[in-house]
Amino acid sequence: MVRARSEERRADILRAALEVIAERGYRGASLASVAERVGLTQQGLLHYFPTKEALLVAVLEERDRWDTSGGRGREGWRLDLLDSLVEYNAMRPGIVQTFSALLGESVTDGHPAREFFTERYAQVRGEMAKVLRMEFGERLPGGLTPERAAPLLTAVMDGLQYQWLLDPAAVDMPAAFRDFLALLRGDGDVRGDRGDPGDPGDRGDPGDREG
């Protein structure tokens, strides 16, 4: 019973930390502000997370657990499951905003999340190469190997999040990701899936398309 209450309190702290970081960024967030949001003293919060850095890493690890199936990781994922993940992220802007803010901050020297993101991207690129190899074999339709295409797939997933967060009315993140998958697969016509005006068979001027 005590352990269950402890786990529940820990989950409350992580949710509060996500909210505070989304509002203020990591550097602007304080342990005191997180503690206040969950009705704890700062000393009480330190019982669960001894440092601000420890809380940050726990937040990032929790976010990654939410992105995987029951904690099993991304092993065995397929492109259609990545499509579902993008759809899922579009329903939780607060979490995506926190992750994106921390990712942007982490490129600065000495940021406590830099090592986490460096290791995470190395792992994700390897996992995306496996996903692409499962879908296409050793060569994608455009001729790239899975290893060369993996950074592009990863960049599109995270880059779309920034565009969507800045202007969600203009950027349909799930639809744009499906368009990218169509390009990877070498599909001839992707306009019909987006509900673009005009004849779906008429590709029109590329400038008419959403970037």
Could you walk me through the main structural features you see in this protein, from its secondary elements to its overall organization?
- It contains ten helices and no strands.
- With 211 residues, it is mainly alpha-helical.
- 18% of the residues are buried.
- Residues 69-73 and 197-204 have low confidence and may be disordered.
Keywords:
66% helix; 10 helices; 0% strand; 211 residues; mainly alpha; single chain
Biggest pleated sheet = none
Helicity range: 55-70%
Q: Strand-residue fraction?
A: under 5%
Give the rounded overall mean pLDDT. 83
| Quaternary | single chain
Structural class: mainly alpha
Question: How many individual helices?
Answer: 10
Low-confidence stretches: 69-73, 197-204
Number of strands: 0
Strand/helix succession = HHHHHHHHHH
The general outline is elongated
Quickly describe the structure.
This protein is mostly helical and 211 residues long. It has ten helices and no strands.
What topology emerges from the helices and strands here?
Blueprint (H helix, E strand, L loop, with lengths): L1 H27 L2 H7 L4 H5 L5 H15 L12 H11 L3 H14 L7 H23 L9 H21 L6 H13 L5 H4 L17
